[in-house]
Design goal:
By secondary structure, the protein is of the alpha/beta class. The protein is built from 16 helices and 22 strands.
Length: 481
Amino acid sequence: MSDFAMTIGGDSIAAADSFGVINPANGDVFAHAPECTTHQLDAAFDSAAMAQRHWKLDEGLRRQTLLDMADALFASAGELAAILTAEQGKPLAEANIEVFASAIWCQYFANLETPPHIIQDDAEAFVEVIRRPVGVVAAITPWNFPLTLAFWKVAPALLAGNTMVLKPSPYTPLTTLKVGELLRDVMPPGVLNVVSGGDQLGAWMTAHPVPNKVSFTGSIETGKLVAQSAAPDLKRVTLELGGNDPAIVLDDADPAVVSRAIFAAAFANNGQVCSAVKRVYVPESLYADVVEGLTAQAAAVKVGDGTDADSRLGPINNAPQFERVKELVADALANGARATTGGKAMDRPGYFFEPTILTDIHDGTRIVDEEQFGPALPVVAYRDIDDVVERANSTHFGLSGSVWGTDADRAAEVASRLECGTAWVNTHLALAPQQPFGGFKWSGMGVENGPWGLAEFTEVQALHRSKSSDGLNLSISSIYS
Ligand code: NAD
């Protein structure tokens, strides 16, 4: 795996400098990615601006291109998945799913109907509300789902008539660079530019004068910097940020069922999912049983190199995140929590951490209050349902949450009280291209997916055609006449 180039104006672009990409399963640099210069970034934005002039005019071409993109992704899934596993660490089967999901998002938006919205059609006027593209979009993605999260942006932005410069995380640039290369043949040059570099490149993008919109997925800390950087020239901003999702188990839940499902939703992608379950609240009456179920799952799950077909969980993606998980677990243990299984890094090369269940733990412990983003799950006991809803909500986070119980109506009523963008009942992590996804509070601004996500890549224009001969039939004058 050596040849990774940027895509700018439809061309393969190398850079004078490059940076190493580490395989988290062994800690070794296995490939290099180009370090985009400011001049190359200018060229990428200029080509996006140039391409947008024609791209915005041909909806048929845009829809067909999205379908062609999906075909190209499906056709190259094996190659892309291998790169994704090497740079991200996730098992190959999940890497394949990530590529398929990206293709499915393209297909969804290719076929999403955008009916005209006529708000007046009478003797005075014909008035339509029309969604216009914002222009050029700067898109920045994190390392946990480099491809899927990119396509949550690429597919709606392109359908709406925008063009894009896309930057993946420096931890996982390769799959996105490869996709840029694969898609050169299926779209006009400049429509989708892919650049790579460090965090500084992201900062250059958000401050750049050409893009009218920044679509960002990443941490809250960086999201705030992005909002500040975009503010001076009033760039439109969508921020998909971190979460600390609570799962609340009700006293009528079946412990065996919920512990299996919650384990899956907490340890998916090795816990590195923005909307994974990150803290579990269990009534005292079920606490021992739910802990036992979660512990059994965590103790049995096979952790290993993502290229090993038996591995269900891979390594943590990068060294800083590995250190953070170690630190949060050590802090919990030092403050009276108990690991019923796991609790430490695995004794092998790479960034492997034992799947960990933490009990005898309380709100106020860092791993309960902060986003751990890794394979360690705190289980907190509660007595009173109103109190636990209050505790679930008393945080700056508000991405998603779930409530679990046999009486689904009662669980739905509790879920409706959660202050978050997605409230699940008897499931968690159920995501779909048609379902809006976004965060309350510090977990984000705006949403992705569905017609709501598409709208975020548009400006609203009222197109008002007067039907009077003298042009004087202003609605306001007719109201006052
Ligand atoms: P991060 O904020 O460190 O980096 C995200 C991206 O921002 C990277 O491409 C990075 O290079 C870039 N970047 C860094 N500094 C920048 C700056 N000053 N200006 C512009 N761009 C900059 O996040 P991460 O560690 O890659 O990802 C993990 C975080 O992302 C977690 O908090 C997770 O919850 C969150 N996340 C959120 C969602 C969501 O949809 N809400 C999805 C996935 C991940």
